[in-house]
Automatic annotation (TrEMBL):
<dbReference type="Pfam" id="PF21917">
    <property type="entry name" value="NMB0537_N"/>
</dbReference>
<dbReference type="Pfam" id="PF00571">
    <property type="entry name" value="CBS"/>
</dbReference>
<keyword id="KW-0129">CBS domain</keyword>
<dbReference type="InterPro" id="IPR036318">
    <property type="entry name" value="FAD-bd_PCMH-like_sf"/>
</dbReference>
<keyword id="KW-0170">Cobalt</keyword>
<keyword id="KW-0677">Repeat</keyword>
<dbReference type="InterPro" id="IPR016169">
    <property type="entry name" value="FAD-bd_PCMH_sub2"/>
</dbReference>
<dbReference type="InterPro" id="IPR000644">
    <property type="entry name" value="CBS_dom"/>
</dbReference>
<dbReference type="InterPro" id="IPR005170">
    <property type="entry name" value="Transptr-assoc_dom"/>
</dbReference>
<dbReference type="InterPro" id="IPR044751">
    <property type="entry name" value="Ion_transp-like_CBS"/>
</dbReference>
<dbReference type="GO" id="GO:0005886">
    <property type="term" value="C:plasma membrane"/>
</dbReference>
<protein>
    <recommendedName>
        <fullName>Magnesium and cobalt efflux protein CorC</fullName>
    </recommendedName>
</protein>
<comment type="function">
    <text>Plays a role in the transport of magnesium and cobalt ions.</text>
</comment>
<feature type="domain" description="CBS">
    <location>
        <begin position="71"/>
        <end position="130"/>
    </location>
</feature>
<dbReference type="GO" id="GO:0050660">
    <property type="term" value="F:flavin adenine dinucleotide binding"/>
</dbReference>
<keyword id="KW-0813">Transport</keyword>
<dbReference type="InterPro" id="IPR054115">
    <property type="entry name" value="CorC_N"/>
</dbReference>
Amino acid sequence: MSDDNPHSSRGSAGKSWLERIASIFTAEPQDISDLQDIISEAQMRNLIDTDTKSMLQGVLDVSSMRARDIMIPRSQMATIDIDDDVADMLPILLENNHSRYPVVNEDKDHIEGILLVKDLLHFALNPDNTDWHLRDLLRPAVIIPESKRVDALLKEFRQKRYHMAIVVDEYGGVSGLVTIEDILEQIVGEIEDEHDDEEEHDIKKMASRVFQVSALTPLDEFNETFGTSFDEEDADTIGGIVLHAFGHMPERGESIELNGLTFKVSKANSRRLVQLQVIRAKESVEAEDG
C-alpha cells in the first residue's frame, strides 16, 4: 500500500541533530564518560560535525569546572585606580580594549566597583559634566568564591544580567576575575572581536622596548622588523618558533628568552598562541639610539 503522507520521504533526514543523537541511545547514560562515548559515536556516524562535538564536549567540561579553573589570574587583571583621571585611564583602555574594568583602591584586594567604558565616555565626552568623580560611575562588583561552579555562574550571569565577577580565595583576597565571555569560550571556542582581528595582522610598538605582536606574524616580517635571524625552515610564523622553544602549549603570562628578546604570552587558548608581548633588551635599544 502506498504512503500518502507527503512528509514521509524526508525520513530521518528531517530530524534535528539532537533528535538524531537521541536515536542512538540504547540505554540511559550512567555518567559523564557514557555521554562522551555517545557524542563520539554520533560524530563518527556523521550525525554531528566536529564543531558540534567540540561544543557538546565543552558543555560537559563546564559542568565540572570551578571559577578557579577559568579565571583571569590576579596578576593579569587590567584595573583602574579610583583616583585616576581620564588621562591616566586612556593608556589602559587603549591597550586592553575591554568594555569593563575593576576599579581598585590602593591594590587589587580592595575592589571599589566595576567601571563600564560606555559610562565613562558618557561623562568624559560631555562638556557639561565637569563636576564628577570616578566613584560616581561605578557599578557594584559581584564577588564569588574560587569554588563557585561555572555552570551555576553562567546561569547567574544570564538571570541577573551582569557580565563580570571578582573571584576571591578562602581568606577574602582577590585571586582573579571571570567574565561571561570566558565561560562561553569554554563551550564554543575563542570568541574574537574586531580588535582581535586587527591585532592578528599588526606589530604594534607599545613603548620604547615593548611590542605587541600577533603569533601569526610571518617569520620573515618578524625578522625584518626586529633584526633577528630565526630560521624560516623551522616555522612559518613567530608563534611557531616560540611554541617550539617552550616545548609545550604555554599559558598566558609565561615567558621565554630567545635571541636577545623576551617573549611573553599575552593571549593563548588550548589550541594555539594568539598574541605575544615582545620586549627588546635595553642594551640593544641604547645601541640603536647611539
